[in-house]
């Protein structure tokens, strides 16, 4: 018998299963970066379920099993994951990674994603980006970098992604199979925005390299782009 496969929670089920006290992933010892990442990646979407089942060439089956059976399946079944389960994963990441502080220190989510996707599961990068016409580079997630902008008080994700790509002169080389976006810094010392509105759909038309687009003046296919 193969490993158990539970589907992600759909809209009504998500509200029923995930709302209320003692729901979500229990925090412990600076685990918030990992808790938030795991919840976002698996609670209500199956886009990355290959991480839980695929026998990737470099895949560590023990870590894959902990992720699937101790974290994702309980989250989808009951809406709650114990801190001890996440600590079990963190201990394994400490053993496998180059860093000894995964069990106690606060990390950047990107560091966690790179370790688990690249080194432990051996997944191909999800994003191909090009900056200023230079050589393309590959990555697993995109972190929004931008200067403080006075006209954005309560921005949505669409606005942040567009402005971040514009300020870094970035383009997506191709439509990504999965677009993981890390919001601007939100630490104890500094909060760029007090709130960010989730964009339920993301329009990447203007972010794609060499994508045919409409001229804003005449409506024909555009031949020039003004930033």
UniProtKB/TrEMBL annotation:
Transmembrane segments: none annotated. InterPro entries: Papain-like_cys_pep_sf, USP_CS. Keywords: Cytoplasm, Hydrolase. SUPFAM superfamilies: Cysteine proteinases (SSF54001). One of its GO terms (molecular function) is cysteine-type deubiquitinase activity. This is CYLD hydrolase. It comes from Sylvia atricapilla (blackcap). The gene is Cyld_0.
